[in-house]
Amino acid sequence: MPSLLVVGADHLGNMPEQLANIGFDDVMHLSGRKSQSVRKGIPEKIDAVLVLTDYINHNLTKVIKQQAKDQELPIYYAKRSWCSVQKALCSCEHVCKFMESQQ
Description:
The protein is an alpha/beta fold. The protein has helices at residues 15-21, 37-40, 58-70, 82-90, 93-102; strands at residues 3-7, 26-30, 48-52, 75-78. Belongs to the UPF0751 family.
């Protein structure tokens, strides 16, 4: 069961359902609105990180990027629109191979 951490935006709307359709069964969300979000970090059971660039501050982006690098997790950047998210996740060869191996 691949899991994804979505960082940014207050609400995801129907994005978790759409992410489930492309294979991410477990979607966690970190809005990044509160300053405490920087300290929480990436949970251990996460397989990949998606940063919504139009709804996140630069400090949190920097921290999440470094934590993903330290944990050797793939990190993807997209705007909040589903088209942008799908393009970021599905056009990446790494994610496509990852999704095929999970099925």
